[in-house]
Amino acid sequence: MKVISVFGSSAPQPGSAAYEEARQVGRLLAEAGFAVATGGYSGTMTAVSQGASEAGGHVIGVTSAQIERFRPLGPNQWVAEEIKYESLRDRLMHLVLRNDGMITLPGGIGTLSEMALAWSFLQVGEVEERPFALLGDMWREGVQALYRPEYMRQENLDLLFFADSAETAVAHIAKNVMRDA
Question: What is the Cα–Cα distance from 124 to 126, expressed in whole angstroms?
Answer without folding.
Answer: 6
